[in-house]
């Protein structure tokens, strides 16, 4: 029996050539290996791209290892906070609703993925026209995230619209996927039948981690030698709580061997760098983001991978930051400073330490404890981390799990 055709609708997806790949790309690529015909539909203009795919016409199909990646020509917007970005959710939804007019292979299944639920309206309309099964994938719970982290009132008219769309999506989808293990609790409270829920976490690509590109010598020269490196790589924003790294660096500044390395960009980076300068900290280094293909090589320079998040109620539904799975795959111990007590893989696998609350004193004590461990214990934690990644979160394995769910439709 031939495998099915799957259309993944993800406005902010990308290929490694133009962006950072991401969940849709990696799962799609692995599903192709399992015999599926996969199309991913994305915008050629969004804030998560390293560079824009340039082409003439309405769309461009990029074939990557058998995966059909369809870039739609969409208008530019300034940044993630631009009002025009909101308008483009609706424009993208409209484009999606008209995909039945294009000469792509008809889908058996359409999967529309968040964060914004607005494109679901287009996916729902399309599924009716094509008589396809429909999956709603939640990678970030909107509008709850905008309320809890963004500080927007739940009574704001646009929040009410998003809430209506979210509830509509739970009711009209054949299945609901999420990378957040306990998000079903929220979804059921919004009217979803629990039997629809399937958990598929984020993961890592084994090939990328086994064969990484080396770091540039200029970047390597900016990483201190013969130090115990506590590293963070990723977005520097409000929800990431990276400011705690500066606080902890200040607490541990008298221990010369411990050095903090922060690699990334984001809206909070300027303020955090300024805070470190005001404190006259010499034990913290800030670097710009590195290319996705070089990230595994960056992790090799860390002694401990540090993951922190703001202490918000959303964490009770689980966390699924991409760096969590990449940190594990790096084979280095992780310090997991997130208040998400049920998501306790690091502790269970002895792959590092978990700090149950985002408390800077707890974090500094955990780092000091890791620093004082014998080398063999640090190495064993790293081995355990990699084993955890391979046993639970490798993308080829996750695609097989997804395949089983798709067979149910």
Compute the number of structural domains: 2
List the total number of helices: 16
Major sheet: size, sense and barrel closure?
Answer: 8 strands, mixed
CATH class label of the largest domain:
Alpha Beta
Helix content: 25-40%
Query: Radius of gyration in whole Å, from Cα?
Result: 21 Å
Structural class: alpha/beta
What is the number of E strands? 14
Order of helices and strands: EHEEEHEHEHHEHEHHEHEHEHEHEHEHHH
The low-confidence parts are: none
CATH H-level superfamily title of the largest domain:
Glycogen Phosphorylase B
In percent, how much strand structure appears in the residues? 15-25%
Mean pLDDT: 93
Shape: globular
Distance between the termini: 15 Å
Protein name: Glycosyl transferase, group 1
GO molecular function: hexosyltransferase activity
Organism: Taylorella asinigenitalis 14/45
Domain Glycosyltransferase subfamily 4-like N-terminal: 25-207
In short:
With 409 residues, the chain is of the alpha/beta class. It has helices at 23-33, 83-97, 119-130, 144-148, 157-172, 184-189, 206-210, 217-221, 243-251, 269-278, 295-299, 322-329, 345-348, 360-371, 375-392, 395-407, and strands spanning 5-9, 37-43, 59-64, 67-72, 109-113, 133-138, 175-178, 197-199, 228-233, 258-263, 284-287, 304-308, 334-337, 352-354. It has two domains: 5-203 and 394-407, Rossmann fold (3-Layer(aba) Sandwich), CATH 3.40.50; 208-392, Glycogen Phosphorylase B (Rossmann fold), CATH 3.40.50.
């Amino acid at each position: 029996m031939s495998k099915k055709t799957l259309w993944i609708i993800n406005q902010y997806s990308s290929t490694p050539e133009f962006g950072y790949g991401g969940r849709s790309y990696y799962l799609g690529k692995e599903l192709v290996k399992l015999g599926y015909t996969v199309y991913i539909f994305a915008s050629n203009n969004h804030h998560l791209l390293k560079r824009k795919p340039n082409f003439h016409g309405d769309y461009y199909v990029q074939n990557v290892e058998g995966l059909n990646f369809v870039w739609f020509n969409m208008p530019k917007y300034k940044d993630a906070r631009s009002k025009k970005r909101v308008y483009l959710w609706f424009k993208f939804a409209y484009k999606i609703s008209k995909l039945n007019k294009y000469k792509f292979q008809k889908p058996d299944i359409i999967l529309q993925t968040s964060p914004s639920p607005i494109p679901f309206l287009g996916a729902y309309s399309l599924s009716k026209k094509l008589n396809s099964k429909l999956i709603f994938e939640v990678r970030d719970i909107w509008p709850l995230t905008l309320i809890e982290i963004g500080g927007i009132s739940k009574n704001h008219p646009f929040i009410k619209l998003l809430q209506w769309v979210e509830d509509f999506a739970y009711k009209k989808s054949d299945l609901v996927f999420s990378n957040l293990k306990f998000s079903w609790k929220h979804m059921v409270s919004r009217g979803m039948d629990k039997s629809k829920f399937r958990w598929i976490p984020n993961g890592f690509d084994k090939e990328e981690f086994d064969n990484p590109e080396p770091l540039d010598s200029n970047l390597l020269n900016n990483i201190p030698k013969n130090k115990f490196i506590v590293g963070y790589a990723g977005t520097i924003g409000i929800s990431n709580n990276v400011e705690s790294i500066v606080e902890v660096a200040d607490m541990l500044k008298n221990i010369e061997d411990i050095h903090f390395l922060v690699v990334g960009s984001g809206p909070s980076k300027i303020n955090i760098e300024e805070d470190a300068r005001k404190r006259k900290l010499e034990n913290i280094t800030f670097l710009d983001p590195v290319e996705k293909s070089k990230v595994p090589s960056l992790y090799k320079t860390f002694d401990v991978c540090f993951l922190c998040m703001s202490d918000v109620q959303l964490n009770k539904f689980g966390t699924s930051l991409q760096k969590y799975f990449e940190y594990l795959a790096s084979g280095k111990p992780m310090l997991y400073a997130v208040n998400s007590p049920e998501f306790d893989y690091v502790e269970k696998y002895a792959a590092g330490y978990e700090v149950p609350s985002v408390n800077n004193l707890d974090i500094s004590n955990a780092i000091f404890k890791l620093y004082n461990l014998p080398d063999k214990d640090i190495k064993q934690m790293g081995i355990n981390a990699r084993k955890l990644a391979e046993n639970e979160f490798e993308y080829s394995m996750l695609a097989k799990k997804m395949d089983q769910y798709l067979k149910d439709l």
